Amino acid sequence: MAAAVAIGERGRGRTAPNPSVGCLIIKRGRIVGAGWTQPGGRPHAEAMALAEAGTKARGATAYVTLEPCAHRSLRGPPCAELLAEAGIARIVVAVGDPDPRTDGRGLDRLRAAGIEVVVGAGAAEAERSLAGFLSRVRLGRPFVTLKLAMSLDGKIALPSGESRWITGEDSRAHVHGERARADMIIVGRGTYEADKPRLDVRLPGLEPWSPRRALLTRGEGVAEWHRLGSPAAIFDLADVNDLFVEGGSGAASAFLQADLVDRLLIYRAPILIGDGKQSIGYIGLTSIAEAHRRWRLADSRMLGIDRLEVYERDRL
């Protein structure tokens, strides 16, 4: 399942509002078919994997990161039906599909066809990969990642506003990889006016994966940029699974105060700035107790001279 999750990542940022699913078909210990959701949402991962496997799919085991769809579409038949017709003998599914058009019906159809169904393997990893889609279906909004690049003392710029570059090349390359997985990237008016950021992906071969750009402002918009008047406007983004908030402190504070951040990426450079611009401002807390038990450390690693810390919002 880990391999299925990994190949499902290949479609991130290009399949919304569909999920980016990964599928592997295994027979006698060998991969005979592999697929991931294609740009625009079709073909689905299962259809791709079955096309590669051909007749070898009969009697094989399929590993799929999300429950195969059960609803008919003008763009193709249900994946549960395709798997049954191909003669798959066993299917391992990481996560059930909360979309009401499927939501258990895909599994029921597979079982009715005599296919052995196993659910839950690799669920945590698959949930992370599918977080954008799952958030949009369950919560009615995209999954929100907030990126903060700061000094050891939590500053994002000098008093003059100079901020290039706080972090090193390895961190900046990692940020571009994160951009490539997002459907939309947003900054605040202050960052736009000060930096005129391109917000594109500048990694060799991934340039076409640059996300749509958005501006958080109550004022006038910018040509070719989506305008959001407030963080709550993300509930209207029906075709966005993953939203990447890149700056600056105003936008970061607004999303945190609205409690609409699901994941934090904190890039810490080994420098001290002293007086300077804070990474975030007021976020609505009235006591220290409120600040505890909100964030769970999910990852920590070195990126060249910088340290990356990844935190996930604990909403239990």
TrEMBL record:
Q: Binding positions for substrate?
A: 163, 179, 202, 246
The answer to whether keyword Manganese applies is no
Its keywords, alphabetically, are: Metal-binding, Multifunctional enzyme, NADP, Oxidoreductase, Riboflavin biosynthesis, Zinc
| GO molecular function ontology, one term from the record | 5-amino-6-(5-phosphoribosylamino)uracil reductase activity
The processes (GO biological process) annotated in the record are:
riboflavin biosynthetic process
Superkingdom of the organism of origin? Bacteria
Q: NCBIfam families annotated for this entry?
A: eubact_ribD
Kindly provide the name given to this protein in its UniProt entry: Riboflavin biosynthesis protein RibD
Taxonomic source organism: Allosphingosinicella deserti
